[in-house]
Design goal:
A hairpin with a 2-residue loop joins strand 2 and strand 3. Helix 1 packs across helix 2 and helix 5 runs antiparallel to helix 6. The longest helix has 19 residues. This protein is about 35% helix and about 30% strand. The chain is of the alpha+beta class and about 260 residues long. The chain has one domain: PmbA/TldD fold. The strands form 2 sheets. Strands 3-2-1-5-6 form a 5-stranded antiparallel sheet, with helices on both faces. The protein has a two-stranded antiparallel ribbon with strand order 4-7.
């Protein structure tokens, strides 16, 4: 059975069933990414990728306190699920107790969409961006400049379940654009900085900045739950997950022609 043939919430439930630890947290991240790349004032590549990362966090109680172990892997199949859980448990047994360990949180209402399919991005996210980029290419050619860069839009649906009954789901969009500029005139070196600044001004004037989507009703609870989990079990991966969610502040999907939205 392939990693994508099972639903993410089912993978979370199965991993929790397999756990023999005193406490267990499972996070399934379903990721889809759409990208555009350009060079010399022309598009070069575009496409969409999808993947899944599964993280198991096991906690083990001992005389001196609670220890945790974290194992994260991509494209985990049904046959690889139990070895992943056992690896997290082994890591917990081999770790020292955490000084600030606390019981896993409980009694939090489940997210309404926990059993729903993951949200996915697609090339359609660039429907407004791509034509406007073509206009930017034309202006760059007319001004003796070359545009190189890329635009990525990522959407991650995270499914979180714990042995204490927590069942949360959060959809996190993230986007980035990169636009270096190269002057192509004979006196390139002398005008490189001016070309870069002018192209940047034109590009920023033509495109509206990315805007974050309106939060779903359960987003606040999802963020709070992640933060609490980080505080209680102190593990590197959970810390990175909380940081990633906090830093995802831009969405390429909201790119639009500034002139058209003014």
């Amino acid at each position: 059975m392939s990693a994508r043939s099972t639903k993410p919430h089912e993978v979370v439930e199965r991993a929790l069933e397999l756990s023999r630890a005193d406490g267990c947290v499972v996070i399934a991240d379903e990721q889809s990414t759409a990208n555009l790349r350009w060079a010399g004032n022309a598009l070069t590549t575009n496409g969409v990728t999808r993947g899944r990362t599964l993280t198991v966090i096991a906690t083990v109680d001992g005389k001196e306190g609670t220890a945790s172990g974290v194992v994260s892997r991509s494209a985990v199949t049904a046959d690889e699920l139990e070895p992943l859980v056992r690896a997290a448990e082994a890591a917990a047994r081999g770790a020292g107790p955490a000084e600030d360990a606390q019981p896993l949180i409980a009694d939090v209402p489940a997210s309404p969409g926990f059993a729903d399919a993951p949200a996915e991005t697609s090339s359609a996210v660039f429907d407004d961006f791509a034509p406007a980029l073509g206009e930017a290419f034309a202006r760059a050619r007319a001004g003796g400049r070359e545009l190189y860069g890329f635009a990525n839009h990522e959407l991650v649906s995270s499914y979180l379940g714990t042995s204490t009954g927590l069942r949360l789901r959060h959809d996190q969009p993230n986007g980035i654009r990169w636009l270096p500029v190269r002057g192509v005139a004979d006196d390139r070196k002398r005008h490189a900085n001016d070309d870069r600044q002018q192209a940047k001004q034109e590009f920023d004037a033509h495109f509206s900045p990315p805007r974050s989507p309106e939060p779903r009703a359960d987003d606040t609870r999802s963020h709070a739950a992640r933060a609490l989990i980080h505080q209680h079990i102190v593990c590197t991966l959970t810390k990175q997950d909380v940081t990633r969610v906090a830093e995802c502040q831009t969405v390429l999907g909201s790119f639009a022609d500034a002139a058209g939205t003014a």
